[in-house]
Amino acid sequence: MPKRNLFVLLLLLAVAAAAWLARERNADGRRLGELLSTIEASYLEPMDRGSLFDAAVAGVFSRLDEHSTFVAGDRRDELEALLDQEFGGVGLELVEVGEPREISVLSPVVGSPAWHAGIAPGDRIRAVDGASTRQLTLDETFRRLRGRPGSAVVVAVEPAASSAAEPGGPAASVRDVSLVREIVRTESVLGDRRGPDGSWEWIAEGETPAWAFVRIVSFGERTPDELRRALDAIASRSAAGPRPTALVIDLRGNAGGLLSAAVDVCDLFLDDGVIVSTRGRRDGSDAGDDAVVDVRRAAPGAVLADLPMAVLVDGLTASAAEVVAACLQDHGRAIVVGSRTFGKGTVQSILPLSDGSGLVKLTTAEYLRPSRRNIHRRSDDDGRDDWGVSPDPGCGLTPTRRQLEALESWRRLRDIVPPKGRAGDATLPDSWASRPRQADPVLAKALESLRTDGSP
Predict the structure, then answer these.
(1) Which of 40, 72, 242, 418 is the S-S candidate for 424 at Cβ 3.0 to 4.6 Å?
(2) pTM of the entire structure?
(3) Model pLDDT, residue 114
């Protein structure tokens, strides 16, 4: 047979094999499409095809773990805003208060359109583009305030003083504020309290000897850069005045975020060593676990290397936050104080659909501590099994519900952004000025443990 004919024959066989494989791969998709079409056309009650698709997707993901899901619509916007740490809007943190329910400003975001317009903590939001907030849920109000940068929105605002003096507020006290939406950037690294200009103070107030306090509330794209700036400010304070004797990193309530951000955060505090190991899908071979492990290591150059550290955790500390706590604990860089963490040791990859209709959030790996101990809590694990991150010996403490409620109220007051051009509200309750260790029993435990550990 001529070589050219042999080549053509082999090419035809390859094309036929590819077509057969494609047919096999697409068979399930065709069956699913036929099933949905049959239901849509013949079911007793009219069914929307989009609803049927959503139900089919929910059924597929019900066979996977609880962290894998299909994300679309408003949930997609919320996820992207959380990870990117930015969204199009006016920059208002809102909360529901009172009875009947009212929507109140918890705090404006520093530098946002709302902050520049003078909207202050405690102001009531009465309407958004003419729609009364009496008829809107908190989520619906958020959605109406967010939107494309450059677009306008009119917010009816009743000042906090008017609301307090005249419950229900006369119409004359409400002003319409026209705002132009911008890209609003959210913070993931917070300090002890707000300064007069809205910036964070990193050195704890009223404490002798001085110590630094940093809270990381999530792990997003800008978290490592935010933390580096905070640590640089702490180092500058050390050079200019009394040197802090310790650094406390608060990860309580941090549900996680980007694994890459957690790795970069750990790298700031370490000169060398394993930060985390990620193990992907097992292929059933006998190659062993090491064949599917990706190891992330620290690069030389640690900041504040001689400053004793404590990391605060609780039962809501999860995922990327557990990576940080476990890494610093295993390397002996920090003591861990509080209560056992949540135990989420899996990595979710965000995979967009080709048509742009949504995102697949899919568990694709699990991670291990530097010591190679397990973090993830499986469904049949109990308190005796090895999972999560536990406090160091003698550093365990779980506050009571009353203590947690008091701490949340105290912390909310200290996080308030002062209205633009004003130094803050002089009528704050006396509890605002409580020393951090007086308001926070876990923090007090950490400071006591650091001293016991040999720090000044």
Answers:
(1) 418
(2) 0.83
(3) 94
